[in-house]
Amino acid sequence: MGIGMGLSMTPATGAITGSLPREQQGVASALNDVTREFGTALGVALLGALLSAGYRGAIDDRLHNISGPLADTAREGIANAVEVAGSTGTHAPDLIHAARQSFVDGWQQAMWAGVAVMGALSAYITLRGIGGSTTDLGDELN
């Protein structure tokens, strides 16, 4: 992810600000930063919700020997499951393994959703073309 961001963000910012007259480059840079921050926050929120839902769905199937309030606490998240594992006696290793595996399952679900979104966006850009818009960014800022 770091390599991809490093290879794409700097040239994208340069292209955005370089396409405008010098007096409008500050506005373009600020707009670029706002959209990047908004996209990051939205992405973290959506992927985090998918991760949480995937974890809960996966751990439900793995809590066979644990019930009651301990199971409810384990469903809340991996940190809670590890914390209550000591209270489950001989089932502690099984609970920790179940929580870790459920977290991985939820993470994979969230990442595949991210791949699907990025694939759809890439296909849209490819089919539409990079220069598909009839308006110029400079015209939009005026």
How would you portray this structure in words?
The protein has helices spanning 2-18, 25-60, 69-75, 78-85, 92-128, 137-141. With 142 residues, it is mainly alpha-helical. Helix 2 (25-60) crosses helix 5 (92-128) and helix 4 (78-85) runs antiparallel to helix 5 (92-128). It is elongated.
Could you provide a short overview of the structure?
The protein has six helices and no strands.
Give the number of helices: 6
Low-confidence stretches: none
Average predicted confidence as pLDDT:
86
The total of beta strands comes to 0
Percentage of β-strand residues: under 5%
- SSE topology string: HHHHHH
Largest sheet: none
Report the end-to-end length measured between terminal Cα atoms: 35 Å
The Cα radius of gyration reads 22 Å
- What is the overall shape? elongated
Helix content: over 70%
Notable characteristics:
single chain; elongated; 77% helix; 6 helices
How would the blueprint of this fold be written?
Elements: H1 2-18, H2 25-60, H3 69-75, H4 78-85, H5 92-128, H6 137-141
Helix pairs in contact: 1-2, 2-5, 3-4, 4-5
